[in-house]
Amino acid sequence: MADEKTFRVNDVDLCVQTFGEPGDPAILLIAGVSSSMDWWEPEFCERLAAGSRFVIRYDHRDTGRSAGYPVGAPGYSGDDLIADAAGVLDVLGVTRAHVVGISMGGAMAQVIALEHPERVASLTLISTSGGPGDPDLPGMTEALQATFADPPQEPDWSDRDAVIDHIVDGCRPYAAPSRPFDEAGVREVATRVVERSSNIEAAMKNHWLIEGSGGWRARLPEIAVPVLVLHGTEDPLFPLPHGRALADEIPDARLLPLEGVGHELPRTAWDVVVPAILWHTSGGWGRQAGVLAAKALAGDDPTGWFERLYAAADAGEVPMPWDREGPREQLREWAASRALTGEGRRALVIGCGLGNDAEYIATLGFDTDAFDISATAIRTARTRHPTSAVRYRTADLFTLPPEWTAAFDLVVEIFTVQALPPSLRDQAITVIRHLPAPGGTLIVIMASRDTAEEAEDGPPWPLTRTEMESFAQDDLSLVHLEELPDPRLWRAEFRRDARP
User: Fold this and answer.
1) Do residues 124 and 101 lie in contact, with contact meaning Cβ atoms separated by under 8 Å?
2) What is the pTM of this model?
3) How many CA atoms lie within 13 A of 340 on its CB side?
4) Count of H helices and E strands in the chain?
5) Alpha helices by DSSP H, 372-424
6) Catalytic (active site) residue 235
7) Which of these is catalytic: 80, 84, 235, 357?
8) CA atoms within a 13 Å half-sphere pointing along the CA-CB vector of 313
9) CA separation for the pair 147, 127 (Å, rounded)
10) Catalytic residue, candidates 263, 282, 357, 448
11) Is 52 assigned a catalytic role?
12) Which residue among 35, 52, 66, 103 is the active-site one?
């Protein structure tokens, strides 16, 4: 967590704070009406940052430590607040961000995606609406209407404790009625809000006086980025149909109802919300693998990213990597073409992941071992195949059991070497070539490239023909090497000489 900093944005001072590393994908958090950055709690931001995100929160004008205006006289419009959000990205050098907005912040996020689409990688819309007040959408609940009809008396704005009580009491009607109100948690945030606000009275009043953008619902089909709609099932201000309408009217949107949540982001919902946002902003497991691999290499831990990626998937933060139905088709085709059977023979599957290739090899009759460096992958494989005869184990390619040397009649290596940085390639190939038994077979399937000089950002780091042929050393011979199209892959078969 970085210290708060004040930046000059659109000729006003805005207070900004970041979490995580600037090189990671950026998440811009936009708070609701009259809300400072404090409502995006530090622990919430840190959990997002732990998923390899650069998290940005900031104080709107008239909130927290950002520029203030006289009570009742905000010198800005809703359009200015929207421009401020883009301006925060500018001062941080962020070209494009995943934008997360709650309530008014969610409305702002929609307009930003429409007016500044080049700045938005995705949207997450929490407790918000594309058409507040529209006749086809339900209005606020009767209980909340009663609160607006008979608002609580204003506090003495110079009385710290009275203002904190006022904020806590103001949050209560927006909470879900089916669960206890988290008064202690809300009071903790409200205390920080009061302590950080330059003018708490202006913060609580001025946003309600500004002119908003309005009228963008008809343009929702123009939003061209992925959208996650998080909406409480008990939202009293914007009942759930508001969230459904957003998900229905934005082309690439999905709704995740938050059970037992009101117009709020309670701590009890973070275990659902944080993984959902991380999943939504991951760009898929391949992109997340690139982020994690770069960090692992920079930290001199070139294989550590495998476990981190599988663990993130296990936590619901990214799609499960290398997840598919059945074995890889290139392996199945090869085995079928040779009428491969394994009765009385042993097989080893390298970097087995979730176990689909290992299970297929076992169905051919092989006594099968399979390993992966990721403990989470192995645990998942065992869970998915509870009655399997495959012996799954967590192991490192570079420290395999010595008894595995020259022990297997079939060794299957698919995509493991290409997932390792080129600096480890020769070492990995050397280990693998010593695993087949005399007379045993090694099948290798890898992404291909033409020359070693081709610039490749990995993972994966595809192999050249020469690198594929380099498996054939000592008494391991190349039987067949072919390049497959769409996707472009090498498939090679090697055989160890039988002992006289």
Assistant:
1) yes
2) 0.87
3) 24
4) 16, 15
5) 375-384
6) yes
7) 235
8) 27
9) 19
10) 263
11) no
12) 103
